[in-house]
């Protein structure tokens, strides 16, 4: 018998980008989403086959339906119901638009959605709507209240970049007031429209990580980071014993992404295909593709990530390494930590000054 949480055998998170269509034009959008649906999206039948295959990973496979905006698909509820019936834990990340009415939120809950994630990238209407490109702040809050009324656990996703970092404490207060169960804090990876945004510096990222651990300890909701696995390293160095609990999930290692046209990527932020679900099972691609196998082996990392004693619980953002260097096994340029005794090359603008 295999360990049910063995990331060589199954992803802890499987994301399916059901469409790239979306009414919004968010400034950081990985998908560079557009209003119209792509004509070659996976069909309903192909989507159901993917959900059947996802269930083969094991009981309770977490499947995230993302976009674009999943609500752009007319068969969304049918797909949710089908996936839930196969034993998958179905979750969804809809866009905060007028189409996400309380009635639709209740319909998603009734169909079998186990958690809904909404994006909040500003603490006020002005800052959030400026970042998202459309007037979505009020619609997002309405949907969050609808989720609470429907008994649907709520996750809030927030992008961290130079434009948003100062608002994090006030966004934290919003997350608490909305009754969210989890705050997922995404550190910008320069792909899609996000290429025009400025990231925070490595030193500022480190400080934010330390603050997020304080938030995690003090608030009723959990905190996790996306594309910033050195959050776990910061926690371990601060003697926070729970920091390794969520360890080991990075692109291709505990995580897989299926695009709207069926390409299987290690992450939506690392768009290098290892196969297509129209041609082979997502299970086989995840378990056997060379690209995924390489990303699951921390001893294949190079630079200071390869030399780091925390590589098994962190491993760095493979997506950010790829975005900056074209090599997904290179060092993560956002992490300022330098392993003791390491004297090799450093990524990006990070200055080597001993241990962080």
TrEMBL record:
<dbReference type="InterPro" id="IPR006638">
    <property type="entry name" value="Elp3/MiaA/NifB-like_rSAM"/>
</dbReference>
<dbReference type="InterPro" id="IPR013785">
    <property type="entry name" value="Aldolase_TIM"/>
</dbReference>
<dbReference type="Pfam" id="PF04055">
    <property type="entry name" value="Radical_SAM"/>
</dbReference>
<dbReference type="InterPro" id="IPR050377">
    <property type="entry name" value="Radical_SAM_PqqE_MftC-like"/>
</dbReference>
<keyword id="KW-0004">4Fe-4S</keyword>
<dbReference type="GO" id="GO:0051539">
    <property type="term" value="F:4 iron, 4 sulfur cluster binding"/>
</dbReference>
<keyword id="KW-0479">Metal-binding</keyword>
<dbReference type="GO" id="GO:0003824">
    <property type="term" value="F:catalytic activity"/>
</dbReference>
<feature type="domain" description="Radical SAM core">
    <location>
        <begin position="8"/>
        <end position="218"/>
    </location>
</feature>
<dbReference type="GO" id="GO:0046872">
    <property type="term" value="F:metal ion binding"/>
</dbReference>
<keyword id="KW-0408">Iron</keyword>
<keyword id="KW-0949">S-adenosyl-L-methionine</keyword>
<keyword id="KW-0411">Iron-sulfur</keyword>
<dbReference type="InterPro" id="IPR058240">
    <property type="entry name" value="rSAM_sf"/>
</dbReference>
<protein>
    <submittedName>
        <fullName>Radical SAM additional 4Fe4S-binding SPASM domain-containing protein</fullName>
    </submittedName>
</protein>
<dbReference type="InterPro" id="IPR007197">
    <property type="entry name" value="rSAM"/>
</dbReference>
<dbReference type="InterPro" id="IPR017200">
    <property type="entry name" value="PqqE-like"/>
</dbReference>
